[in-house]
Design a protein that fits this description.
99 residues; alpha+beta; SH3 type barrels; six-stranded antiparallel beta sheet; 2 helices; elongated; DUF2187 domain-containing protein
């Protein structure tokens, strides 16, 4: 892909020559002279640890980018994996609140 073809906010298919083993998709956040900063959007589950270590971002050379296609068998990156659970009241807490 050429620099002129890459736009901020675009979703692209990419591959990394070092960090990530399988191809992945990312959203272009910033464009440099010969590369682009991508926020990793979907990836192969095999690369989950590497993606986490990279904080879901990577700089990729334009030659390793191409227009996005539908992702197959991939995991969507989540920047916020917070679980919310209801906490059951205890009997002691009920007694304290009645005082």
């Amino acid at each position: 892909m050429k620099k002129a073809d890459v736009k901020v906010g675009a979703i692209v298919d990419a591959k990394s020559e070092e960090e990530i083993k399988k191809p992945f998709q990312g959203k272009v956040e910033k464009i440099y002279e010969n590369s682009a900063l991508l926020a990793i959007a979907s990836y192969d589950p095999v690369d989950a640890t590497a993606i986490s270590d990279l904080n879901n971002k990577i700089v990729v050379n334009f030659k390793n980018l191409k227009a996005a296609s539908a992702a197959k068998n991939s995991k969507t990156a989540s920047t916020n994996e917070v679980k919310v659970e209801k906490i059951a009241k205890t009997k002691k807490a009920d007694k304290d609140s009645k005082k």
